[in-house]
Design goal:
Helix content is 38%, strand content 7%. It has 6 helices and 4 strands. The structure holds a DNA duplex. Keywords: DNA damage. This is Methylated-DNA-protein-cysteine methyltransferase-like protein. It holds the Pfam family DNA_binding_1.
Length: 109
DNA sequence: CTGCTGACCGAGA
DNA sequence: ATCTCGGCCAGCA
């Protein structure tokens, strides 16, 4: 598990796996934690390969608390279902109390 | 090798 | 307050 072996994507997966239950974070927060606050796009792009991994991508939303990535999930409301299943209220792809459920790895970790 | 895309974010008008 | 635009880096054809 050498850092060199761990690509940017792998780091994203690691952080995503560290997201506590019933908690959500943003791409920018992960990117910032990785040292690339401007590369938040890659974080989302990295999630492209999260399919099939133990990465709770449904806990990762955009800065607005919007489930932008839900479009990439299997179903249409699967992401919302998962979040609601964890106690996170979601309304129309939008996380309720997102500010309260927000989990910043750069500060809380 | 070059170019395009991508689940975003921040700043400017 | 809302809308628009550029930029960042990595993977793939």
């Amino acid at each position: 598990m050498k850092p060199e072996t761990l690509s940017f994507f792998d780091k994203v997966y690691e952080v995503a796996k560290l997201i506590p239950y019933g908690r959500v974070t943003s791409y920018g927060a992960i990117a910032k934690y990785l040292g690339a606050p401007r590369s938040s796009r890659m974080v989302g792009y990295a999630m492209n390969g999260s399919s099939g991994k133990d990465v709770p991508a449904h806990r990762v939303v955009n800065r607005n608390g919007l489930l932008t990535g839900k479009h990439h999930f299997d179903g249409t409301n699967l992401m919302q279902q998962l979040l609601e299943s964890e106690g996170v209220k979601v309304k129309d792809n939008q996380v309720q109390d997102f500010k309260k459920l927000f989990w910043d790895p750069a500060e809380l970790l």
